Amino acid sequence: MKQLAALFLRLGITAFGGPAAHIAMMRDEVVDRRHWMTDSEFLDLLAATNLIPGPNSTEMAIHIGYKRGGLPGLLTAGTCFIVPACLLVMTIAWGYTHYGETPQVAWLTYGVSPVIIAIILQAVGKLTRSVSGGVTSTFIGLAATALAIGGVNELALLAGGGIVALVARRVAHFTVAGIFVMLTVSAATVCAATLAAATAVPVTLTRLTLFFLKVGSILFGSGYVLLAFLRADLTERWLWLTEQQLIDAVTVGQVTPGPVFTTATFIGFLLGGWSGAVLATLAIFAPGFIFVAVTHPLIGRLRGSALASDLVDGVAAASLGLMVAVTWHLGRTAIVDLPTAALLVASGTTLAVWRPNSTWLIVSGAVLGWALRGGQG
Q1: What distance lies between CA 166 and its chain's CA centroid?
Q2: How far is the C-alpha of 228 from the C-alpha of 235, rounded, in Å?
Q3: Is the pTM of the predicted complex or chain greater than 0.90?
Q4: pLDDT in tens, 140-173
Q5: Which residues of 208-241 are buried (b: 16+ CB within 10 A; e: fewer)?
Q6: Using CA of residue 328, residue 331, residue 333, residue 336, what is the dihedral sign?
Q7: Other beta carbons less than 10 A from residue 194's beta carbon
């Protein structure tokens, strides 16, 4: 428990960059450094995480805690990963409500973002070598990357990856064209969100809690998907937040360490003060603990079934494709000039040659960001 608490408290304080970066850092810690599991076991946890709704990196931390220490480990890892970020976001939200603006953190993201890209790329490269399935898995990963960059729903791609792996390994002459058609058809079958007329609804702690409980129970995908949920209900339908407040809330969730879903903490504070922040946080993260507790014991049985094993392999390959797509999107905003490009190359080289703890690279990126940009504003 002490090892889990120490690791995930540190990650909760230093894990910048969103779910893909968090997962990359977790892999570095539990596979390369501590040898708590193999890459294959880590990928099984990643696939299981992607099959349930909720915040992916947080659920990955919870899965690791469960594997290492059972139910006490589940609670320890998840809580230690979430709490530091929530306390920081509450503090920022308090300042925001008093001063009306977010902290100036452009210098921080300028230096840290290229380092995050390098960390994710290294993790993707290592995890790719552990994915079984040969040509089929390679195609699933590449197709998932291309379709995700094109804007296809993440859940559709994960489902499509599992279906393709199941069919391709049982039909000897299943063509590449057929695989592509199946992926696109799976993506096209995702239900569109229903539209609702804007209606001013009074804010109450009960409504706030139930809303974030719903989001934590049904939301698949990244923080960008969370933004769509928040905007549809809180801004357009119920008129609880302005567009600028919503943007500020998502920005704080992304630039602070730990889970991106701490956006809920920020919004909860804006709408309900300290009580709102605590309730919104508990509501959006609680379903993840329950889903992991229910599904984790089934992972070994899934691997014992040929059918389920093929499904998990397909989902794992699609998960890696999604990580590559996230890296592409992040890279377009992170690599903006020659210094950031140089920092990406230097970080990648350092990781490949010396394999330092990724936390120190992030700290170094923050220091360089301050040196290059911090003094300008």
Answers
A1: 26
A2: 10
A3: no
A4: 889 988 888 887 767 678 788 888 888 886 664 4
A5: bbebbbebbbebbbbbeebbebbbebbbbbbebb
A6: negative
A7: 6
